[in-house]
């Protein structure tokens, strides 16, 4: 197992499938995810044609906060979803 893969797997909410998806968009460490941010990471994933639901968006945010995605504040989830939807709509995706 690659060191950075192991690092990402240690984050809450992220399993092997999620880590592989993150790798496909160039996110290989917690620092990469933090630098890019959950919304931009989600947009990059969707832009590659990967069918990812909002749960992945929430999971990415939760991974950075060390919180289970389902325990994120509902207002935060709404802001994340709104921002992602805005970007995806402007790209003709949703």
Automatic annotation (TrEMBL):
Top-rank taxon, per record: Bacteria
**Coiled-coil residues:** none
The protein's organism comes out as Microbulbifer flavimaris
InterPro entries on file = TfoX-like, TfoX_C
Pfam families the record matches: TfoX_C
What is the name listed in the Swiss-Prot or TrEMBL entry for this protein? Competence protein TfoX
Domain named TfoX C-terminal is located at 5-83
């Amino acid at each position: 197992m690659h060191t950075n893969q192991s690092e990402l797997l240690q984050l809450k909410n992220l399993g092997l499938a999620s880590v592989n998806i993150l790798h496909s968009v160039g996110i290989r460490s917690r620092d990469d995810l933090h630098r890019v941010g959950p919304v931009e990471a989600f947009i990059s994933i969707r832009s590659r044609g990967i069918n990812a639901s909002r749960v992945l968006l929430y999971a990415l945010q939760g991974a950075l906060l060390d919180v289970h995605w389902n325990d994120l504040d509902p207002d935060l989830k709404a802001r994340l979803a709104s921002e992602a939807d805005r970007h995806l709509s402007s790209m003709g995706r949703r």
